[in-house]
């Protein structure tokens, strides 16, 4: 029962609401409250600041929470180890991915499912900051993110591919059938880009700054799929990673052209540097090493783009 009480505490700290934490833990609110009270009795300290609603943890509770997260993560790893010993690895793999990589996540989750059909997968679209924090707090198992990040020192890292940026247009006529465009010219087009708080947008903004150009941003969104739909339906242009083009091959009316000078960033998988890794993380990590996403996406940048899906 002690591990279950720790799970209640971790859920309550994350949800900051007794009813929501109880729902996540699949128990009644009174049962969750009683479990945390029993934990306080066993440890002999007050963990939760109580009032008519959740008011946060006590200073002692904050310190205990860090140990609770590690204990819950270790227990999950132990449970997975027992599962793998039965030759049927199960459990939940929690993957955080930056928004621009969401379209290519199936290139990972598909092979994972083929190799481990009893494994459940939870994918969240998160910022790079949220991914690092989620791994540190044991809320995530793996992250798919930019690798040019000093915060990744001490993390286990596996490079997957270089994300290259292209201009996305509705058709070839709208860009004069050009095969490439510089950043200064792209800045003159009405653009739909991700919101300014997202790292992808900050990278693109820096590229325009280097070109001494002020982009004409007319629409902003926090969804990469909204970028595509606006290019299709709203007479605007966008700048997207070339890896997205693999998902857009069925959109024959879309056109993508190279931006020069080329802007690229390394994308890869990250995990906490634990030894041993939890079995479910180790299994996914090993499966990832057999993938060659760079080779899969590289052809998207070769040749002249006409309509996507009808490359010549």
Task: Report what the structure shows.
The chain is built from 11 helices and 10 strands. Helix 5 links the parallel strand 1 (91-97) and strand 2. Among the domains are: 1-79, Winged helix-like DNA-binding domain superfamily/Winged helix DNA-binding domain (Arc Repressor Mutant, subunit A, Orthogonal Bundle); 163-265, D-Maltodextrin-Binding Protein, domain 2, CATH 3.40.190. It has helices at residues 2-15, 18-24, 29-43, 59-85, 106-115, 128-136, 183-186, 199-210, 224-233, 279-288, 293-297; strands spanning 91-97, 119-125, 142-146, 155-169, 180-182, 190-194, 216-221, 238-241, 255-260, 264-272. The relative contact order is 0.14. Strands 1, 2, 3, 4, 5, 8, 9 and 10 form an 8-stranded mixed β-sheet that branches. It is an alpha/beta fold and 312 residues long. The model is unreliable at 303-312 (pLDDT under 50).
Question: What keyword list fits this structure?
Answer:
single chain, Arc Repressor Mutant, subunit A, elongated, 21% strand, alpha/beta, 11 helices, 312 residues, D-Maltodextrin-Binding Protein, domain 2, two-stranded parallel sheet
Layout of helices and strands:
Elements: H1 2-15, H2 18-24, H3 29-43, H4 59-85, E1 91-97, H5 106-115, E2 119-125, H6 128-136, E3 142-146, E4 155-169, E5 180-182, H7 183-186, E6 190-194, H8 199-210, E7 216-221, H9 224-233, E8 238-241, E9 255-260, E10 264-272, H10 279-288, H11 293-297
Parallel strand pairs: 1-2, 1-3, 5-9, 6-7
Antiparallel strand pairs: 3-10, 4-8, 4-9, 4-10
């Amino acid at each position: 029962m002690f591990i279950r009480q720790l799970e209640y505490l971790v859920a309550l700290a994350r949800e900051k609401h007794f009813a929501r934490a109880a729902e996540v833990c699949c128990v009644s609110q009174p049962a969750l409250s009683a479990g945390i009270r029993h934990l306080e009795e066993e440890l002999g300290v007050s963990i939760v600041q109580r009032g008519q609603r959740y008011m946060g943890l006590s200073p002692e509770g904050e310190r205990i929470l860090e140990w609770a997260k590690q204990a819950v993560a270790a227990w999950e790893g132990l449970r997975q180890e027992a599962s793998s010993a039965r030759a049927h690895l199960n459990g939940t793999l929690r993957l955080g991915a930056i928004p621009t990589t969401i379209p290519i996540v199936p290139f990972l989750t598909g092979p994972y499912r083929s190799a481990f059909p009893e494994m459940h997968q939870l994918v969240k679209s998160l910022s790079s900051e949220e991914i690092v924090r989620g791994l540190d707090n044991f809320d995530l198992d793996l992250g798919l993110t930019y690798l040019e990040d000093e915060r990744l020192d001490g993390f286990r890292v596996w490079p997957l591919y270089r994300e290259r940026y292209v201009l996305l247009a509705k058709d070839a006529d709208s860009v004069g059938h050009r095969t490439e465009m510089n950043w200064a010219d792209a800045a003159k087009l009405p653009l739909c880009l991700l919101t300014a708080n997202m790292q992808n947008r900050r990278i693109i903004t820096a590229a325009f700054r280097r070109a001494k150009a002020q982009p004409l941003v007319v629409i902003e969104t926090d969804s990469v799929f909204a970028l595509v739909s606006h290019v299709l339906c709203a007479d605007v242009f966008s700048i997207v990673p070339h890896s997205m083009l693999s998902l857009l091959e069925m959109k024959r009316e879309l056109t993508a052209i190279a931006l020069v000078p080329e802007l690229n960033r390394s994308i890869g998988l990250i995990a906490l540097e634990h030894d041993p890794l939890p079995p479910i993380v180790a299994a996914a990590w090993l499966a990832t090493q057999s993938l060659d996403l760079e080779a899969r996406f590289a052809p998207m940048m070769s040749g002249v783009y006409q309509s996507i899906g009808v490359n010549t």
